[in-house]
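Input record (one chain):
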Amino acid sequence: MKNTNSKVSTVPDILIKVVLIVTAMAVLLPLVFMLSASFMPAIEIRVMPYRWIPSRIAWINFYKAVAGNDGNFVFIRNVMNSLIVSISVALLTITLSSITGYGLAKFRFKGRNVVFMCIMMTMMIPFETIMVPLYMVVLRLGMQNTYQGLIIPFMMNAFGVFMMRQYLQTFPTDMLDAARIDGCTEPGIFVKIVMINSSPALASLAILTFRQQWDNLLWPLMVAQEKRLKTIPTYIVSFAEEKFADEGAMMAVALLASIPVILMFVTLSKYFVGGSSVYTAGKE
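The corresponding structure, as predicted from the sequence alone:
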């Protein structure tokens, strides 16, 4: 009977593993194609059936990706712009969202739930509906073609407040009270206790915010009209629109543009996985 039960119990496990393997292959297939095609001559990419292993390594693809079709090497400047914007927005978001989430999670005041619900309601508003008014504000403030115009409109979002509030609701209130009894100030409690012990949530929010800004295309197209302020998504679009751009070089551009996000995820992956508890609402 034990053997029969063990055999029966393995059937769902096998099915789950098969589903997970198939799902992982479906997710990784475009990435494998991008990696393979970036080393291929353009003519091999268009051959069907597709050959996953290139006949020769076309290093020229990466030179074309960095140099651009006009050979001005603006790719390097665009990478720096994307790094400046993405890192700045991520740092501002985790700072402001954690302060707001901490206040909503651990301080009781009249209208606390109303304030939180008003913040959450902004998540229901599509960015396209506020894009033009937001652009007019940036234009009137003289922030077009500036880093401020790319950073300030995204320095805080409702999702970040929600994430930090949910995580900090599970934070031990007794620890905060003990720090107050010992004479620690509220800013000191927040910096020395709350922030230090919230690394999983902060890392998760930082990764998600960084990736969102790294992939942001629409807003930089509107605000950054000068080439010196273009970001990686705008570079990819302009590169793909060029008449003589080839597929191998475009795949090389996509591969190079993916490296910073991959490195950030690998660096913070242990915190990101540990941040799964941010979605569990705790009780005080």
